[in-house]
């Protein structure tokens, strides 16, 4: 599909960006005065308590600082400052798995955030800078807890509810968290599921830092209460005051940590700032989703991922919008659930991942036609490249060929969108993220900074610091520099490398070609091969293992493991072996990292120095012809042996 789709202007009334000329004019403003243009937005958008005195401090690059000297508060920016004009407007519309509904106005949200903030201070002694781990389902209390932390200056670290006790424990210990906020559990596909027992297991060993666990009672199932440690959120909140002063936060004070996978080692705690992060969350909400006062916006992500942070909670609320939160899954009770909700709430912007689009397409191709989806103006995608068939169905069946599709390219580390169409003006090429947003200097370059030739793959870099960028990896400045500023240089200066490859077309459109490192993108979520391999290696009978991504119809990529067993006596029962290995992965990481398939092989293709040639393994699993030079392998004959096992 190389066709260009021009936005339907009639869908947009006075948009934030009405024409490509306006877009180019702002890009030129940033070119002419980068810092000054950012300052203009910071002055206009942020309700500063005290003004900043430096726009960008590059003296300790790449530890950049934005808006130094200024103080503000993210919860104030997202909630309190709207109370004069929007107190009765819906801030959050919640729909539970079983269809229960709750509308929380900005006034009510302020009330609950303040009570929760007071509870954290008074009952759990949480102070500015303390870390709070949030392990919660998709219920309003998750957003309230995030904002309550922001209000008092505590740093939250959300751990996705699908992670195992072991993964939760690692993240709690790394952040040295004092408090864990969780729920008994929640509902999925009409049935209760549990979270608190996972927290109990995580805390059984080695989490001495945690003093208390605060539990939201959502599904009412029986849970274990540890006396003196565990407290009911629902009980404690009753006695808390609804008045709480916002803690003045320095621009650079950390707002949150969010752990994400890298190509090597353990997950890294990406640290985000207060002012720069919220500024870009709000700006992109306004630009990319063209959010208007009467709009109802729905992002289907989970708050456990960056998309949930920036585009369910912080961005929409900073922009004073109405954001929908959904506890359930898109296919329950049937594949029309999302479209029913779009009709019912008259959703104007719908934001989801290609994996969900593929699933909904497969399970309910004709479902969208059963509902009135005419309120939709913008359809968003995020997390992985969207394939043309999924794009086409989204555009035609869901958007009735009227909506703009914004294919938003960004990462946990970038805080907000980097490359995306602007819905009312960018001529869209399907499955292409199009152009960098104004203020973002995104370049596809060689390692030495030379721009790549048109149509050739290069490194996707952001060559100037931007306000919402990662500040460091928690506890590991060295890894931060090495992971992001170690590969590419421009004009002799280290620049931020995303880890992705990309290409630029003759007409300057940017297409992301995928990760260049050993990170697999499973259903739009990053999974480090090293993490999965470490889990598999815990199996007594595993001698070595290599994990690669395998194309998957719904997930985009699935996980495929090549395993060398110490003894193949038990191999008669491969299925059993696979089961136990997957159980291990589930316990070490969580169900999201389960292997879709495994091959038991006599050895792995290694160079003479012992390096595993993953590219060969990737080619084999895709059924591609091996074009790599195998002569440097210790044993070149292993390639054919592995191929025949995989073809089976
Ligand atoms: O490879 C890119 C892919 O997802 C990675 C970031 O993953 P994560 O930090 O988990 O954040 C996901 C949500 C922002 C990127 O390095 N990615 C994300 N969006 C796109 C994408 N690949 C292609 N097109 C996109 N729109």
CATH architecture of the domain at 518-647: 2-Layer Sandwich
CATH C-level of the domain at 518-647? Alpha Beta
Strand-residue proportion: 15-25%
Summed over residues and divided by their number, the pLDDT gives a mean of 95
The helix count comes to: 19
CATH topology of the domain at 518-647: GMP Synthetase, Chain A, domain 3
* Hetero compounds: adenosine-5'-monophosphate-propyl ester
- Biggest sheet, spatial arrangement of strands: 12-11-8-6-7-14-15-23
Structure write-up:
This protein is α/β, with parallel strands linked by helices. Among the domains are: 444-513, Roll (Luciferase, domain 3); 518-647, ANL, C-terminal domain (GMP Synthetase, Chain A, domain 3, 2-Layer Sandwich), CATH 3.30.300. The protein is built from 19 helices and 31 strands. Strand 4 (90-95) and strand 5 (101-105) form a beta hairpin. Helix 1 (20-32) packs across helix 2 (34-45) and helix 13 packs across helix 14 (388-398). The longest helix has 19 residues, at 106-124. The mean pLDDT is 95. Adenosine-5'-monophosphate-propyl ester binds at residues 260, 306-307, 382-385, 407-412, 433, 498-500, 512, 514-515, 521, 525-526.
In terms of topology, how is this protein built?
Layout: H1 20-32, H2 34-45, E1 54-57, E2 65-68, E3 71-72, H3 74-78, H4 83-86, E4 90-95, E5 101-105, H5 106-124, E6 131-135, H6 140-152, E7 155-158, H7 165-175, E8 179-183, E9 185-188, E10 191-194, H8 196-204, E11 212-216, E12 230-232, H9 233-236, E13 249-250, E14 254-260, E15 268-273, H10 275-288, E16 296-299, H11 306-318, E17 322-326, H12 337-345, E18 349-352, H13 354-363, E19 378-382, H14 388-398, E20 404-408, E21 442-445, E22 458-462, E23 472-473, H15 477-485, E24 488-490, E25 493-504, E26 510-515, E27 519-522, E28 525-528, H16 529-537, E29 542-552, E30 556-565, H17 574-588, E31 597-600, H18 614-622, H19 637-647
Parallel strand pairs: 4-17, 6-7, 6-8, 7-14, 8-11, 11-12, 16-17, 16-18, 18-19, 19-20, 30-31
Antiparallel strand pairs: 1-2, 3-13, 4-5, 9-10, 14-15, 15-23, 21-22, 22-25, 24-25, 25-26, 27-28, 29-30
Bound molecules: adenosine-5'-monophosphate-propyl ester.
Residues 260, 306-307, 382-385, 407-412, 433, 498-500, 512, 514-515, 521, 525-526 line the site of adenosine-5'-monophosphate-propyl ester.
